[in-house]
Design a protein that fits this description.
Radius of gyration: 25 Å
CATH architecture of the largest domain: 3-Layer(aba) Sandwich
CATH class of the largest domain: Alpha Beta
Mean pLDDT: 92
Strand content: 15-25%
Distance between the termini: 53 Å
CATH superfamily of the largest domain: P-loop containing nucleotide triphosphate hydrolases
Largest sheet: 9 strands, mixed
Oligomer: single chain
Bound molecules: glutamine
Strand order of the largest sheet: 13-12-14-15-25-24-23-20-21
Number of strands: 25
Number of domains: 2
Shape: globular
Length: 547
C-alpha cells in the first residue's frame, strides 16, 4: 500500500487484563499477513518514565528492545506477532511525555506561555504517535489502562483529536470489552460493555468496532443488543473468544471477519491474508508428539508474567520439536542442599533465568550443580550464566571462594564482577566505571554483537553462523582474570564480543547440553522463528528423556 498512514487506536474497558496487548498484536499480524507494513505503539498512563525500575510482581516483565529501551511487556507480544523491531519511539508513558514537555518549558520553547494539558501535553502525545510512521501503512496504537481511569484521560483526549487531524477514514477506534457469562442467569451480560462505551462516548470517542472478550461465541441477538446500545452496526461487534493458546487469537479474529471489517472502515484494499504458516503452527501446537518437562529455577516463581518472553521462547522451542511444554516453576529460595535440588530430577531440562538481587542465589547455584552432575540439559541466561560460572569455579576448578561481586563485594575470587573499563560496541567508545558507581553503574542494554569462536560448540551448532546480535540487560561481566584457569578445567568460552574482551557464552562439553549466555535470547524468539538456543535446549531435553 502506498499513500497515507492509517491509524488504529485500541482501548480497553470494564476491567484490566483483558489482553489488549494480544488483541493489538493479533490485529497487527492479520494486517501484515495481507501485505501491509504494520507498526505498533504502546501508550502507558503510569508516571514512571520507563518500566525499567518497576517491580515485576506488579508490572510483569521488562522487555528490552534492540536499541536498549526497557519497555512494557506488551511490546514483546508485538514483536512476536508482527515483523517489527521496536524502539524507544514505540512506547510512551505519561512520565516520558511530561518529562519532554517540562524539558521544553525549561528551555523556553513555549516562549513564556502557560503550559497546559490541552494543548501542550496532548500535542506532545500526538507528535509521539507520528514519530515513526515513515514507510508504515498501518500504525496500531494501544492505550494502556481501562476507560474510566483518571490517568489515561490526556491520552484519550489526544487520540480523539488525532482523528480530527488526519481525517475520518484514516483512523478508527477499537474498544476491547468484557461480556461475562453469569451461570445462575444462564446468559451473558452486556451491561458492563454498555457502561464502558457510554464512558468512552462521554469523552468524545465513539468506537467503530467492539471486540467482546468472552468464553463463547456471541449470538446474533446479543450482538444486535450490544450494537443498539453502543451506537454501532451489528457487523462491527466481534467475539474475542477465550483460547487455550495465544497464537490462536488472530485465527479466531479472522474467522469472525475482523480484519476485513477494519480494512473496510479504513478504506484499504488488499489481497486475502497468508495464514498457512500460522495455521500449520497451531496444528503442531494441538498435536504434539511428546511432552517435555522444563524446570525454571528463579525468584519470582509464582508470577509467570515476569518471565513472559522466557515462557514464550520455551514454548516456541517446544513446538519446533513437536513437543508439548510442561513448565515447572521452582522457587530457588527453597533449595538449600543437593537433596533439595533432587526435586529437579524429574525435569528433562533445567533453566536458570536472569535476575537481580541476592535472594535465592545459593539455591540457583545448587540447581546448576545438580544439572551439571546429573547430566540434565541446562540453559543459563544472564544471571543464570554468571552463576554457572560461579558453580564451575567453586566445584570443578576448586576456587572455593568464587562468587559474583554483585552478591559479595569483597569476594576473594570475583569470577563475575563490574568491569572498570570496556569497549562499548554500540557507542564505539571505551566505557569506564569507577568504584563509586559500584551500585548504580550503567547497564549494558540492548543488542550487542557476539562472535561465535568455536565451530565445534553447541552455540555454533544452534546458530550456524559466526556473527550474532543478542539483547542484554545487566551490569556484571565475566572476569577475564579467571579465563585461563577455568578453561584449563574444561569450561569453554564459545561466544565473545568482537574485540574479545567480554565473554558472551560459556559451555561444558563433558555433558549432554550445558550452555550459559550473558544475553537474553528469549527477547528475540518468535513462534514462526523459534530462537536457536531454545530450540536446541528443548531438543537436548527431549533426547535425555528418550535415553
Ligand atoms: N544481576 C546481574 C547483572 O546485573 C544479571 C542481570 C540479569 O540477569 N538480567 O549483571
Amino acid at each position: 500500500m502506498t499513500g497515507k498512514t492509517k491509524y488504529i487506536f485500541v482501548t480497553g474497558g470494564v476491567l484490566s487484563s483483558l489482553g489488549k496487548g494480544l488483541a493489538s498484536a493479533s490485529i497487527g499480524m492479520l494486517l501484515e499477513s495481507r501485505g501491509l507494513n504494520v507498526s505498533l505503539i504502546k501508550l502507558d498512563p503510569y508516571i514512571n518514565v520507563d518500566p525499567g525500575t518497576m517491580n515485576p510482581f506488579q508490572h510483569g516483565e521488562v522487555f528490552v528492545t534492540d536499541d536498549g529501551t526497557e519497555t512494557d511487556l506488551d511490546l514483546g507480544h508485538y514483536e512476536r506477532f508482527v515483523n517489527v523491531r521496536l524502539t524507544a519511539d514505540h512506547n510512551f508513558t505519561t512520565g516520558k511525555i511530561y518529562n519532554s514537555v517540562i524539558t521544553k518549558e525549561r528551555r523556553g520553547d513555549y516562549l513564556g506561555g502557560t503550559v497546559q494539558v490541552i494543548p501542550h501535553i496532548t500535542d506532545e502525545i500526538k507528535n509521539s504517535i507520528k514519530l515513526r510512521t515513515e514507510d508504515v501503512d498501518i500504525v496500531i496504537v494501544e492505550i494502556g489502562g481501562t476507560i474510566g481511569d483518571i490517568e489515561s484521560l490526556p491520552f484519550l483526549e489526544a487520540i480523539r483529536q488525532f482523528r480530527f487531524d488526519v481525517g475520518r477514514e484514516n483512523a478508527i477506534y477499537i474498544h476491547l470489552t468484557f461480556v461475562p457469562y453469569i451461570p445462575t442467569a444462564g446468559e451473558v451480560k452486556t451491561k458492563p460493555t454498555q457502561h464502558s462505551v457510554k464512558e468512552l462516548r462521554s469523552i468524545g470517542i465513539q468506537p467503530d468496532i467492539l471486540l467482546c472478550r468472552t468464553g463463547r461465541f456471541l449470538s446474533d441477538d446479543i450482538k444486535a443488543k450490544i450494537a443498539l446500545f453502543c451506537n454501532l452496526s451489528q457487523d462491527a461487534v466481534f467475539t474475542a473468544k477465550d483460547v487455550d493458546c495465544i497464537y490462536e487469537v488472530p485465527l479466531i479474529y479472522h474467522q469472525e471477519g475482523l480484519d476485513q471489517k477494519i480494512l473496510e472502515q479504513l478504506n484499504v484494499w488488499t489481497g486475502s491474508p497468508h495464514l498457512d504458516a500460522w495455521r500449520a503452527l497451531m496444528d503442531k501446537v494441538k498435536h504434539p508428539a511428546a511432552t517435555v518437562k522444563i524446570a525454571v529455577v528463579g525468584k519470582y516463581t509464582d508470577l509467570t508474567e515476569s518471565y513472559k518472553s522466557l515462557n514464550e521462547a520455551l514454548f516456541h522451542g517446544s513446538v519446533a520439536n513437536d513437543a508439548n511444554l510442561d513448565l515447572m516453576f521452582v522457587d530457588s529460595s527453597t533449595i538449600h542442599t543437593q537433596k533439595d535440588a533432587a526435586m529437579l530430577g524429574d525435569a528433562d531440562g533445567i533453566l536458570v533465568p536472569g535476575g537481580f538481587g541476592s535472594r535465592g542465589v545459593e539455591g540457583k547455584i545448587l540447581a546448576i550443580q545438580y544439572a551439571r552432575e546429573h547430566a540434565i540439559p541446562f540453559l543459563g541466561i544472564c544471571l543464570g550464566m554468571q552463576l554457572a560460572v560461579v558453580e564451575f569455579a567453586r566445584h570443578v576448578a576448586g576456587i572455593k571462594t568464587a562468587h559474583s561481586s554483585e552478591f559479595d563485594q569483597d569476594a576473594a575470587d570475583p569470577v563475575i564482577y563490574l568491569m572498570r573499563e570496556w569497549f562499548d560496541e554500540k557507542t564505539q567508545t571505551v566505557e569506564r566505571r569507577d568504584a563509586d558507581s559500584e551500585k548504580g553503574g550503567t547497564m549494558r542494554l540492548g543488542a550487542y554483537p557476539c562472535k561465535l569462536v568455536d565451530k565445534d560448540s553447541r552455540a555454533w551448532k544452534a546458530y550456524r553462523t559466526e556473527n550474532i546480535f543478542e539483547r542484554h540487560r545487566h551490569r556484571y561481566e565475566f572476569n577475564n582474570g579467571y579465563l585461563k584457569k577455568l578453561e584449563d578445567r574444561g569450561l569453554r568460552f564459545t561466544g565473545l564480543s568482537p574485540k574479545e574482551d567480554l565473554v558472551e557464552i560459556v559451555e561444558i562439553t563433558d555433558h549432554p547440553w550445558f550452555l550459559g549466555c550473558q544475553f537474553h535470547p528469549e527477547f528475540k524468539s518468535r513462534p514462526l522463528e523459534p530462537h536457536p538456543l531454545f530450540r536446541e535446549f528443548i531438543r537436548a531435553a527431549l533426547f535425555k528423556k528418550d535415553n
